[in-house]
Amino acid sequence: MAVHRGLVLLCLLPLAFARYDALVSGALFEGVNTASPDADAISVFKDYKNHADAVASILLTKAKESDFDPRDGIHTIPETYFSFLENAASFPAFFHRGQEDEQHALRLKGGDNDQLLDEITDKYLQKPSSFSLPSPKGSKNKREEERALRIRQAFRELIPATVEKAEWKDWALSLVTIQKPLGSDNITFELAHVRLEISRDDRTGRAVIGPQEATLVKSSYSVMGSYISFYSNEIAKFIEKATVDEFLRAMTTRQHRKLVPVKDDPEDYRGFMQNQQSQQESFRS
């Protein structure tokens, strides 16, 4: 059930009091972007086929208005991040799906990034991921498995391999996901972050994740495309046009590091990592 934006802000208010020392941000697009690269500022909002870019433009503008810019490294100003969440939720065409944000406890054994990623993926999707319970041969859950793979990989890239400052102990791993299914102009998006403790190994500087109960917070939104299209002229006056690719780059922390080692078989996600087209083909099948 969609909830009016005023209620969304009430849901988000408790988050404003949450703190972190360091945040790593990532972004993901799922589906097929049908937006025209030649669309002008008004057409991006008026034409439904361009609405993946329209939502990317709105979210990016809200991030800029909140001074949330994760591109230049580890983010250490929580007020701007939570301001971005509230400003994004306040846009009239965005409706919260459900009565409140999802909050899930993540029980971590410590020292095992695979178990951390299993917990995140399972709770994010609210069902066991394919990494925990492989589906039988010929299963119809192929798309769910592929989505679990994408979410797992996206969060994997957010886990820091090293910790620059010893005082950075409370961490947030943030992921913004925009979705546009093939054959539909209905856009949805998700704002999620994982709160956990990460310490620094004094000798090596490597990140250490100990046993703990971390937290996943996730908000899901539907987009009223008719509102964006009807008010396209007005929206274009205060929302700067951007593409999905520009949004993905702007919302991703540049960490300049190798991925943390995990025990996954590289074959499990090689197709997704090597060729974005393979993801789009999965939506067409």
> What oligomeric state do the depicted chains represent?
single chain
Quick one: overall form? globular
How many beta-strand elements? 9
- Helix count equals 11
In short:
This protein has 285 residues and is of the alpha+beta class. 36% of the residues lie in helices and 21% in strands. It contains 11 helices and 9 strands.
Task: Explain the layout of strands and helices.
Elements: E1 2-3, H1 5-12, E2 22-31, H2 41-46, H3 51-65, H4 78-89, E3 94-97, E4 102-108, H5 113-125, H6 142-156, E5 170-180, E6 188-197, E7 199-200, E8 207-208, E9 212-223, H7 225-230, H8 232-238, H9 244-250, H10 270-274, H11 276-284
Parallel strand pairs: 2-5
Antiparallel strand pairs: 1-3, 3-9, 4-9, 5-6, 6-9, 7-8
Write structural notes for this entry.
Residues 1-17, 128-138 and 256-280 have low confidence and may be disordered. The chain is 36% helix and 21% strand. It has helices at 5-12, 41-46, 51-65, 78-89, 113-125, 142-156, 225-230, 232-238, 244-250, 270-274, 276-284; strands at 2-3, 22-31, 94-97, 102-108, 170-180, 188-197, 199-200, 207-208, 212-223. Strand 7 and strand 8 form a beta hairpin. The protein is built from 11 helices and 9 strands. The relative contact order is 0.23. It is α+β, with helices and mostly antiparallel strands and 285 residues long. The two termini are 29 Å apart.
